[in-house]
Amino acid sequence: MQLQPREVGVLTTLIEDYIQTAVPVGSRTIAKKSNLNLSPASIRNIMADLTEKGYLEQPHTSAGRIPSALGFRFYVDSILQYHPLSSEKRNLMTEHIGDAKLDVPDLLRNASRLLSAFTRQVGMVLAPKASDIGFKHIDFVLLKPCLVMTILVVEGGIVQNKIISADPALNSDDLVKFSNFLNHLFQGRTLAQVRARVVQEMEAAKKQYQTMSGQALALVQQAFATDREREVFVEGTVNFFGHPEFSNPAKLRELLALLEERTRLLELLDQVCKPEGISIFFGREVEQDGFQEYTLISSPYQGQDSPLGVVGVIGPIRMDYAKVVPLVEFTAQVISQLLRNRF
Amino acid sequence: MQLQPREVGVLTTLIEDYIQTAVPVGSRTIAKKSNLNLSPASIRNIMADLTEKGYLEQPHTSAGRIPSALGFRFYVDSILQYHPLSSEKRNLMTEHIGDAKLDVPDLLRNASRLLSAFTRQVGMVLAPKASDIGFKHIDFVLLKPCLVMTILVVEGGIVQNKIISADPALNSDDLVKFSNFLNHLFQGRTLAQVRARVVQEMEAAKKQYQTMSGQALALVQQAFATDREREVFVEGTVNFFGHPEFSNPAKLRELLALLEERTRLLELLDQVCKPEGISIFFGREVEQDGFQEYTLISSPYQGQDSPLGVVGVIGPIRMDYAKVVPLVEFTAQVISQLLRNRF
DNA sequence: TCTGGCACTCGGTCGCACAGAGTGCTAAAC
DNA sequence: GTTTAGCACTCTGTGCGACCGAGTGCCAGA
After folding, report:
1. How far is the CA of A280 from the C1' of D22 (A)?
2. Residue B163: pLDDT over 70
């Protein structure tokens, strides 16, 4: 079902007006704002056609039209022209995200904050999935007798800590030996491979609990016993208050609840995140309660080569895509850049 | 200005009713709910006295009364009887906060979440101030040539990471030597002392950049170059939506903005946190914009002996103090308990 | 094919009246 | 002297009707 050029013109004008005003748009407004040189009456005919085809909706008989999800989809896929980012803005962002001295979580949180500040929407960054990343270093620190802290560093300088209990006979020197042994053993593998290797070695070393390697493996197995939930940094939820679509507190509440509940949020991101390039998802297109009316714009970032995580922006369907999309894209680039130096 | 027993009775009934309903309370209601056996007319006289003395306020002529800040202050200081926590609840909380395997941030975040879930208010936990804690261990990992990750472990198993740049000539073996040297040097000091010591040693070693100790100090100095902001875990902001006092979105927005802006929040906590015992602060009693209408209930937690941080709950002045206060107190106890095992 | 005109629809707002909750005061009862 | 019943008064919230304005759909004519 192709749209005629005039229909596209009306749809574009309508959507862009609606993005600015959040109010149903009438034929008169479009007649004035578009450069089609048609009278309101003609516009009305075109609008009726667009409504029939599903691109527009009418809240009630005597209101103007608002774009439907289909309308927005058509707009972002076929019409939208992105504004390129000004170089001042690029500099400003690069500067603020990345003091390269930051550790990865701080860096990602910064990115999320900046994104939220610049777009006036809610910023979101999904942290790398640890198990896909290369092992770098493991270390044990004896906090007290029987209480050992394991510190696991993966490539890029991402650190995970865990506290485990240990044989009372172990002392600091033992721990140093263990870490030397394990660092050597795990060199150059991903965490997932390390995990597998641990299981395998444990099998082999089953009978030799007394040996150094047996003890070391028992210790490291504890460190790997449970998986950490993948982190998500969500910043700027206050921005929701700026938008008229959130004047209904119940809706706002539902969305905030979704964002606070990390497991549901991760589920949502899983559904939505394509491995490459910018993507724009409307809530109606995903199966997640309470997200029906919102949009997620996201772009993956990567280290040396493989994708690590995702940055994005969450807001109402009515969003200034032309401005927000390039910002999200650029943020992903900056993060990729910063991380690449570390991998 | 002492209150007579009857006045106290009326005030108590009124506040407790108001805590439940959030609606101005009239004389008839009090006459029925209190056990003073007085008619509404008599209650009205007493209420007029209480209003004159500043314990009650009247939103408008024909409304009932609501407690003033002074009224609440009197209530929490002189009247309030805490409900002891049921042992099931104690068990439930202990169990959920503390899998002792968690690292400190996760543990504190958990505590904050639980507190928020049980009180239906917003939970808050202020993390320990690193500089007061004892040094435990420092470690360097070579991520790439010129790029070193420093891992600093302090007592209790709190970890701080930082990425710093290094002399290209350094290799992993050098880093091991450095950390051995420094771990020995800093043994048994607090971070603040370590900082001071680094400065002092740098002075002494000024001329000997070539020596191992000179290089090690140069490296560690970078690691200590900037201070980290003290962390605060705020959880359950969605709970604000449950309370009628937040039906005004502008107020809600202001409070959320305050909670998102960590520096302002830290300022507030600084004003409010007494070093010992539970404390209840009304917004009107502190100088922090946007906090006028809320209450912060807080209690410090400690490791082996000295106070480390604070746990608390933020909500409207109208709060079920009898229930919330013991919960906050108990959470602080559980955290103290868990941390004590590690210090 | 486009446009001017016209009747119609529907939501938002304004004004008004009214009910309900609560007060303060007075006078009578205990 | 204290307590209480009664009463007039005040103020808010709500429901209702009228009205205004924005916008539509359709028809007839350019």
Report:
1. 33
2. yes
